[in-house]
Amino acid sequence: xxxxxxxxxxVLTSAALGVLSAxxxxxxxxxxxxxxxxxxxxxxxxNFALLAKLAVTMLDENNxxxxxxxxxxxxxxxxxxxxxxxxxxxxxxxxxxxMAGVSAVVAAITLVGLFNGTSxxxxxxxxxxxxxxxN
Length: 135
Fold this sequence. Notes:
Helices cover 76% and strands 0% of the residues. It is an all-alpha fold.
């Protein structure tokens, strides 16, 4: 499984868990909690997808944009902290429900890692010393 497939699976699983979280928050605590949970999920999924892209760029020694990606990672972090701070401090979202939405991404990373991490992509080249590539 390549990095793009892994990111796509995490994003899709996060979206499904985020919808479930928003539905439960809405059922138990009202529409504002449902909206807050949805906002948390959207923000966390966008953060995860961008983080994955930047990490892949930074880890590629042949990529000329490595330094730029590192700088952008720092800017992304400051922006994320600022956005979350403004949302929570100004009571635009409900903090607990927002964090439930954010947690959907953490749960998705765990689920995808547990249930899809060991599957191999048939298009991936065999690793050196892999007994399955020997005749």
